[in-house]
Specification:
CATH architecture of the largest domain: 3-Layer(aba) Sandwich
Distance between the termini: 59 Å
Strand content: 15-25%
CATH class of the largest domain: Alpha Beta
Radius of gyration: 25 Å
Shape: elongated
Number of domains: 3
Oligomer: single chain
Strand order of the largest sheet: 1-2-3-4-5-6-7
Order of helices and strands: HEEEHEHEEEHHHHEEHEEHEHEEHH
Number of helices: 12
């Protein structure tokens, strides 16, 4: 490297330090005549360390990705170290999975469990590491995973079919499936075939981010009622809704006496609110939540939301009664279909 490139490498190292990480140069010209990498860097982060073959560029352009493609023939991840990467190019690099760090405080690095997206804005790194460690567990990805858990054979379909059933964009399915394959939940068989091989593990991984990121977005309103026994007298479908949470568990297992009611509907059913004298209260016991799945994900004539969702919502309530009910839902309605799915491949 020349003096200018050495200076870029030094100042980009300051960006890394500001992000709470550090790197050290392992060696210059690591590939010799077999490649164009300028330097081999070891990046040390809280979860471990990883080596990158790095290209140092004063003003990189999009076609630099072609040069990185050459480096990818070597069994090490690649990285661009730059003087400055403008916001538009940064987004393009992010979309095509090109790792970069510049001297102006910008960075995008994705490798294994490490994910960094920094644009020089305060706290950007912290937010992205917490919420985007795996893109599959962002809200749109959670919708895709939900469809796969409800219909385990859907993982074998083409991406357009999955997108249609999940109600998400085609691009969402592409990166969700990439993450699920990388994490071992989905097995790739040849170029075009896949199967969901760890449904229970995927459900366990889905429940917490669903409760944290997607579930709060679904709340339409919370109301209070003088008593709750009226829930047994109505069919929520007559109000364009479905039972979720505790009443759904009570219907599905005949085990739980609901201490709260949840109805999933596209809008708050005003007729029901008036008929039952419900009053809007922040800590009310009657929740109305917006559905996030397509009809094809579930039986059309069902009175309750899918068991997978009942299970997750019961765990989100986090008390002994609902945890016990969630275990029954899993044992009686989820475990059997999961085993039946897996047994198709063991015969």
């Amino acid at each position: 490297m020349n003096e200018r490139e050495e200076n870029i490498l030094l100042r980009a190292g300051e960006t890394i330090e500001k992000l709470g990480l550090r790197w050290k140069v392992q060696r210059h010209d690591p590939l010799g005549d077999n490649g164009s990498a300028d330097v081999l860097l070891e990046l040390v982060y809280p979860g471990g360390q990883v080596e990158f073959l790095a290209e140092v560029k004063a003003r990189p352009m999009l076609r630099v990705g072609d040069e990185l493609a050459k480096l990818r023939r070597v069994d090490l991840p690649s990285l661009i170290v730059a003087d400055y990467v403008n916001p538009r190019l940064a987004e393009q690099f992010r979309e095509i999975d090109v790792n970069f760090v510049d001297a102006a405080g910008n960075a995008c690095i994705r490798h294994g469990g490490l994910y960094i997206w920094a644009t020089g804005e305060k706290d950007t790194l912290r937010i992205e590491v917490e919420r985007e460690r795996l893109r599959a567990f962002q809200p749109s990805g959670l919708k895709t995973i939900f469809a796969l858990l409800c219909r385990t054979e859907l993982a074998e379909a083409d991406y357009r079919t999955i997108a249609k059933h999940a109600g998400v964009a085609l691009g969402t399915v592409q990166w969700v499936m990439r993450d699920l394959i990388k994490e071992g939940y989905v097995l790739r068989l040849g170029r075009f075939h896949r199967r969901l091989v760890k449904p229970k593990e995927l459900l366990d991984a889905w429940v917490i981010p669903y409760s944290r990121y997607l579930r709060p977005r679904l709340l339409l309103g919370r109301f209070e009622a003088t008593e709750l026994n009226w829930w047994r007298e109505i069919d929520p479908r007559s109000y364009d809704g479905l039972w979720g949470g505790e009443p759904a568990a009570a219907l599905l297992t005949r085990y739980l006496k609901p201490g709260s009611l949840t109805i999933f509907s596209e809008a708050i059913p005003v007729r029901l609110v008036v008929e039952k004298g419900l009053e809007k209260r922040e800590a009310g016991r009657v929740d109305f939540r917006r559905p996030f799945w397509r009809v094809d994900t579930h039986e059309r004539n069902a009175e309750t939301v899918p068991p997978i969702l009942v299970y997750a919502d019961l765990l989100a309530l986090d008390d002994t009664r609902t945890r016990e009910a969630a275990e029954r839902i899993y044992e009686e309605l989820i475990d059997g279909p999961f085993h039946a799915h897996l047994s198709r491949w063991s015969r």
